[in-house]
Amino acid sequence: MYTTHVDVDDFQPFGEGDERAGEMHSIREGGSGIASVQVGQLPKSGQYLFHEQETIHVLEGSVRIVTEDGDDVTLKPGDIAYFPEDTRSAWHFSFPFSRLLVA
Prior knowledge:
By secondary structure, the protein is mostly beta strands. Helices cover 0% and strands 56% of the residues. The chain is globular, with a radius of gyration of 13 Å.
């Protein structure tokens, strides 16, 4: 078992290479955690490949996710969605945006 306490001071920058995509508090190695993105930290739209299975729970803001298979969903606070490994998707954000992700 593992427990954690989330404090805004514990959030660390995350992203690919030199590109900052927001801040995240990791729950465990492998990508599970809480991610927060503010205006200007990410483009309003972008492509995302789910490298592994992922479940997300939107905490703040909203996001429209369109998968390569044609699924099209808009998630708002309280909504939960699951995506299989290797799912290609396009994300369209409303900022600020926060989500709990479990990979």
